[in-house]
Amino acid sequence: MKYETYEQVTSAFKNEGYKILAESNDLSWVYMYKIDQIRKNVTLVSWYESDGEVQRISNIEDFLLMDILDEMGYKGSISL
Length: 80
What we know:
The protein has 80 residues and is α+β, with helices and mostly antiparallel strands. The protein has one domain. It is 26% helix and 30% strand. It has helices at residues 6-15, 62-72; strands spanning 19-23, 29-36, 41-48, 54-56. Strands 1-2-3-4 form a four-stranded antiparallel β-sheet, sandwiched between helices. A hairpin with a 4-residue loop joins strand 2 (29-36) and strand 3. The chain starts with 5 loop residues before the first helix and ends in an 8-residue tail after the last helix.
């Protein structure tokens, strides 16, 4: 599904339990995530105003992954 504005996409995905991980100052892109505590997995999505489509992310930068693990309460270390 396409979203025209930052407000549309964040509102729709927040209703599904997603949280904002990172966003641009001009709100032209946003990365969001959703944690499933039962299955112990994370779903990551991105949206860019230029194309309007929400994309699932399979690759993630180390610093973003650490932010998500902190949110999940993970206290160990990881090797990437």
